[in-house]
Write a structure and sequence with these properties.
This protein is α+β, with helices and mostly antiparallel strands. Helix content is 39%, strand content 14%. InterPro entries: QSregVF_b (IPR024530).
Length: 388
């Protein structure tokens, strides 16, 4: 593209200066033709050897020619490694690392952020058999929605993390109120301490490698799993929630809900106490206001306006907490939206976190040949077809 622009402006310049030369100027001044040829060759070589590599490096496309990332483009190298190069080397490599770091800093300012900025993290829960005591134990995976350090991209793309080496104390303590087995544990395999699952029976470490990286691991396809609950930042307080929060709520004042409460036969209930109790639950379901009314069976038969029937198992009022059917549908829709967004990214291997369109074709072919997962092979095949 730059070469075409270079040639275009060359012809434009020639057309501008042509009227100032006689028509047969090359015949009249044969020596000048040699100078013109020399200048043309010089400009072409200047573009090939100096300008083009510089432009490629500015765009992060030039490859690194040393170290463990040899042959990779600057834009594909982890930020930590770029910082190490910039502090260790004192040559063109340092300049390349600096340019890429500056480029990323500019891009970060333009990054799109997901809409659940009030959500800290989601918790995926499942069970597995402990490798040591052979008993069934609960395990969880953490899906971050908020960046934990400057280089994280969780505020752009929520994703499941493993080998978590640090969490703020207030967040970890909040998790441990319901999952005390999720704690700091030393791994003799990697000779490091990190926050991991431990067996609820024998306290043995349930290693993240087996859970997240092995194809048979419980969280290998965690990007397809839905969170059971979320920790959100509501009015500067950490709270558990059944759905992700789009933004931090600064004020607790809300419009009062004045829906008419009906009995199952569509007649307006005359029990003012029950109506008032249910209205409170409807009005404050975000704060999980619990009804203490003893007539739970009657409440289970009452329904809200707009045909939001209350069921004891899956309806809007169960376990003492009001959740409308519309909210349940909205929550499922939001989770599906998150799933659709995550489908654009690869969730395993060395290219984890990158879009499928940024993954090399050789790696896509490897996924097609070696993976049994239908979705992984499908996305890899679709991307390969797109490139043909």
């Amino acid at each position: 593209m730059w070469f075409i622009a270079f040639i275009f402006w060359g012809f434009m310049l020639a057309s501008w200066i042509k009227p100032y030369f006689p028509k047969d100027w090359l015949i009249q001044y044969p020596d000048l033709a040699h100078y013109v040829s020399f200048i043309s060759i010089f400009l072409i070589l200047f573009y090939i050897y100096f300008l083009r590599p510089f432009l490629r490096e500015v765009n992060g496309e030039r490859t690194i020619d040393f170290g463990k990332y040899k042959g990779r483009k600057w834009k594909d190298i982890p930020t930590e490694y770029l910082q190490w190069v910039s502090q260790t080397y004192n040559d063109y490599s340092q300049a390349g690392a600096y340019r890429e770091l500056r480029r990323r800093k500019k891009l970060k300012k333009k990054e799109f952020k997901h809409k659940y900025q009030g959500t800290i993290l989601g918790i995926i829960e499942t069970n597995r058999t402990c490798w040591k005591c052979k008993k069934t134990t609960t395990i969880i995976a953490i899906k971050f929605y908020t960046k934990m350090n400057e280089d994280d991209i969780y505020d752009t793309m929520p994703s499941v993390a493993h080998y978590i080496k640090y969490l703020p104390n207030d967040i970890l303590e909040k998790i441990q109120t319901e999952y005390p087995f999720f704690k700091y544990k030393y791994s003799h395999t990697i000779n490091e301490e990190y926050i991991a699952n431990c067996c609820i029976h024998c306290d043995s470490l349930q290693g993240d490698w087996e859970l997240h990286e092995e194809p048979q691991g419980k969280f290998f396809n965690s990007h397809k799993m839905k969170c059971k609950k979320y920790i959100v930042n509501k009015n500067d307080r950490l709270e558990f929630s059944k759905r992700p929060l789009k933004q931090t709520i600064k004020s607790s004042s809300k419009n009062k809900i004045k829906d008419v409460i009906y009995k199952e036969d569509e007649n307006i209930s005359t029990d003012e106490t029950l109506n008032e109790e249910l209205q409170k639950a409807i009005k404050n379901y975000d704060e999980n206001i619990i009804s203490n009314n003893a007539e739970q069976e009657h409440l289970n038969k009452i329904k809200q306006s707009e045909d939001s029937v209350i069921f004891s198992e899956e309806g809007v009022y169960y376990d003492g907490v009001f959740i409308s059917n519309q909210e349940l549908e909205k929550r499922a829709q939001e989770e599906d939206e998150i799933q659709d967004e995550n489908d654009n990214f690869i969730h395993f291997g060395k290219y984890k976190g990158k879009k499928w369109e940024k993954v090399p074709s050789s790696y896509l072919n490897w996924v097609v040949d070696n993976f049994d997962g239908i979705d992984e092979r499908y996305y890899a095949l679709e991307e390969l077809k797109r490139r043909v």
